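name: query_chain
kind: protein
chains: 1
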Amino acid sequence: MADLKQSRNLEAVKTSLKEINRAAVDGSNLMPILLEAAMNYVTLGEMVGELKEVFGIYEETSIF
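structure:
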């Protein structure tokens, strides 16, 4: 994984992460942007991190 992160295009990764954040904020279709990010070798954790910033984390309330 470290080799992959070192060999990928860092500018493309940054652009993809900004696009994910923008689409999440304005309600655009995320699927094409996520696919493009994957083709730029953005990791799933990085993608989810951007989505968490916008949407937060759902925590179900306890019934008992």
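note: The helical segments are 2-7, 10-26, 31-39, 44-55.
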